Amino acid sequence: MNELVQIVFNGLSPLIIDDVSSEDARIRVRARTPATPAPCPVCGTESARVHGYGERTLADVPVDARRVVVIVRIRRLACATRGCTRQTFREQLPGLLERHQRRTPRMAAQLGSVVRELTGRASARVLPFLAMGASTNTALRALRRLALPARPVPRVLGVDDFALRTEGVNTRTKMIHRQMYGRAGFPLLRHRILLG
Ligand SMILES: [Zn+2]
Predict the structure, then answer these.
(1) How far apart are the CA of 58 and the centre of ligand 1, in A?
(2) What SS3 class is residue 3?
(3) What is the 82 CA–ligand 1 centroid distance (Å)?
(4) Same domain, 44 and 9
(5) CA-based angle 6:11:17, to the nearest 5?
(6) How many structural domains are present in the chain?
(7) CB 49, CB 77: distance < 8 Å
(8) CA 131 to ligand 1 centroid distance, Å
(9) pTM of the model as a whole
């Protein structure tokens, strides 16, 4: 791939980019992992013996105000250690290909910061303009994944006390908001937290 592609997709540098194509509202990147050895998750022995291939599709941060979809060919490697309980394993790329994630970590971080500031429907309205998603569900899922703030929740609570005793997204949202805005009045909470 040429130098321009390397510059634009610098965040994908652990991967080898094979192709970049334009599809109307999105940019599709085809990439693969390098042929370097990876450690078996059970015994730790490194292996580069390919057992097969699979694909992962990940959303990356937007380019040219368009969505970026990265299709990565990943290897299933064979563990050569005699007696190891894991005969084959899928390679991991920490910091780029996290297990069960559909976004690159930097995309998840960007999405998280938008959702943290504009919870619920507000972020669902803004995200399409940032080429970062188009649905309330996207915003809700990102919100659920946000870690709760490490600071303790203030002991003096407002009219929404009852909600803090329930589980779920509303509670989490309110706790995050409480950390950010202090003790908010009921009208503000009602207008800012439109998840229910
Ligand atoms: Zn092993």
Answers:
(1) 27
(2) helix
(3) 8
(4) yes
(5) 45
(6) 2
(7) yes
(8) 41
(9) 0.67
The alpha carbon of 150 and the centre of ligand 1 are apart by a number of angstroms equal to 37
Q: What is the pLDDT of residues 73-111, one digit of tens each?
A: 999 999 989 999 999 999 988 778 777 778 888 888 888
Residues 1 and 96 occupy one common structural domain: yes
Task: Answer whether 49's CB lies under 8 Å from 40's CB.
Answer: no
Count of Cβ atoms closer than 10 Å to residue 101 Cβ: 15
Q: Which residue has the tokens 């894991």?
A: 86
Domain range spanning residue 10? 1-102
- Provide the 3-class DSSP secondary structure of residue 154: coil
Which of 102, 137, 158 is the last residue in one of the domains? 102
Choosing from 102, 135, 151, the residue where a domain stops is: 102
Same domain (yes/no): 53, 124: no
Ligand 1 centroid distance, CA of 83 (Å)? 8
Question: Taking the mean position of all CA atoms in its chain, how far away is CA 118?
Answer: 17
